[in-house]
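User: Please run a holo structure prediction.
Assistant: Happy to. Please share the sequence and the ligand.
User: Here you go; the ligand is FO1.
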Amino acid sequence: MDAAVHHEEERQDTSIAQVVNSELPEVNIVALLGGVGGAKLASGLAQLLPPERLTFVVNTADDFEHLGLHISPDLDTVMYTLAGLVNPETGWGIKDDTWNTLAMLACYEAPTWFRLGDRDLATHLLRSQWLREGFPLTWVTRQLCWLLGVPQTILPMSDDPVHTRVLTENGEIAFQEYFVRYAWQPRIKGVRFEGIEQAQPTREVVSALRNADVILFGPSNPFVSLDPILALPAMRRILSTVRAPRIAISPIVAGRALKGPAAKMMNELNMEASPVTVAAHYRDLLTGFVLDRQDVPCAAVIAEQMGIRTLATDIIMRDEPDRARLAREILQFALQG
Ligand code: FO1
């Protein structure tokens, strides 16, 4: 490695150590997350900060009942990622899982479009049993995390059922049907969150947000991953009255989604697939916005038109060191504000 580059990296490492460990030892980070992008950011943060400083508030509107089991895909994606168990190829499910149950289900002509691995099934079996016994999802998630050795706090956004429904050109369908079964091909006309008016953010979520020193909005799909969290009663009011800096990370780079259908959805909803659209979507809740260097012209628009501070950097997380580097840059940016 070039000596100057090495020196620069050393300097950055020292400065984040100062920012995170000595200058501000009491930094509590809360990140609102959903899906694979959110899990990658969580793992970057987990490389930098002590676990007791990290709380991840995760979308549960993707949850659904399948073959009699309660599946919480976004919670599991974050949990498996932090446990070092996630399948690196898909970003969801368990690495080196086997598919014997799925093969047997196929023999019975049961639905196999939602691919449940043999090991992954254990999580759904146990979660479903505990929920049936009356334990809240927050408790179930804490138990699973503890048993898998995940020391950070993962909180479902709510213990109440919320279900994303996607309005397509062919009618309304459940989120996992849209996302997995139909591989997000139907054109969308809108989304709604069934049950959201009756659902409450949990006490744990509200308390984490009130005690946060920095609140991050992960690089997740704004419409189906973060909007369900933000649509919970009182959530927007809580977020706009806390003093902590609130920083969103763009899920869009150069007109394309980092993963999944965010850009396609924007096009179909007659919006430009751009970080400006994402920043405008959260506008009144944000104090800062992180976008990719490739979108640097958008930074000026966001800063000037919305009065939101911006950081342009490389936001594509290709590997573990990338995740830690981005997390570090985001925290430095947040804590400068
Ligand atoms: N995503 C897929 O694209 N295909 C699948 O078959 C699939 C199965 C699956 C099983 C368990 C789990 O926890 C997640 C799974 N996912 C699958 C991912 C998941 O449904 C989506 O990534 C999220 O809901 C969107 O955030």
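The chain has a mean pLDDT of 93.
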